[in-house]
């Protein structure tokens, strides 16, 4: 990946907190806790999942790959974590703030990498060998899946047809 491609991905990742904030403005507190008829996360659950994954998944992976030689990196089980941490009961605004802060810190760390550091690697459970250069792409793919899920949820909340059942993995 060249510097221009990388910066495009990083700018895209930088925009996700604003997209989530805009989605949050479109719903009431009660609506932010509605789950899609076909199953999946509510908006508040999506936000807290993204906040926790940003800190405990992507953030830890970035730091460990920088500090350790080929660390074994665990998956982040989003569905289990959502249940255990009762995301439905959490404050949406606090989740948005935590996600934005964690994303900013991760982007700062990624932008500070030297060319050789992008090649540092680890082994992610269920994925295999990854390098730091893979992390922004993984983050962007994960963001896109949640952006689509949230857009479908908002259409459903605002009177659209329920989305068809989708099976997506909340493990990242």
In short:
This protein is mainly alpha-helical.
Describe it.
The chain has 172 residues and is mainly alpha-helical. The protein has five helices and three strands, in the order H-H-E-H-H-E-E-H. Strands 1-2-3 form a three-stranded mixed sheet, covered by helices on one side. Strand 2 and strand 3 form a beta hairpin. Helix 2 runs antiparallel to helix 5. 30% of the residues are buried.
- Helical content stands at 55-70%
Main pleated sheet: 3 strands, mixed
What fraction of residues sit in β-strands?
5-15%
Overall 3D shape: globular
- Strand sequence of the main sheet, in spatial order? 1-2-3
Entry keywords:
172 residues, mainly alpha, three-stranded mixed β-sheet, 5 helices, 3 strands, 58% helix
Sequence-ordered SSE layout with sheet pairings:
Blueprint: H1 3-25, H2 43-67, E1 72-73, H3 78-84, H4 92-111, E2 121-124, E3 128-131, H5 134-157
Parallel strand pairs: 1-2
Antiparallel strand pairs: 2-3
């Amino acid at each position: 990946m060249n510097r221009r491609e990388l910066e495009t991905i990083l700018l895209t990742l930088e925009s996700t907190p604003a997209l989530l904030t805009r989605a949050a403005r479109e719903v009431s507190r009660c609506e932010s806790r509605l789950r899609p008829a076909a199953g999946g996360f509510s908006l508040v659950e999506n936000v807290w999942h993204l906040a926790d994954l940003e800190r405990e998944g992507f953030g830890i992976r970035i730091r460990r790959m920088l500090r350790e030689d080929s660390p074994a990196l665990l998956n982040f089980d989003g569905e289990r974590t959502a249940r255990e941490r009762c995301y439905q009961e959490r404050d949406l605004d606090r989740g948005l703030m935590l996600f934005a802060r964690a994303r900013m810190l991760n982007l700062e760390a990624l932008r500070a990498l030297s060319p050789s550091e992008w090649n540092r690697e680890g082994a992610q459970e269920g994925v295999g060998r990854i390098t730091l250069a893979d992390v922004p792409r993984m983050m962007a793919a994960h963001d896109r899946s949640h952006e689509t899920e949230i857009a479908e949820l908002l259409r459903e909340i605002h009177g659209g047809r329920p989305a068809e059942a989708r099976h997506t993995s909340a493990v990242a």
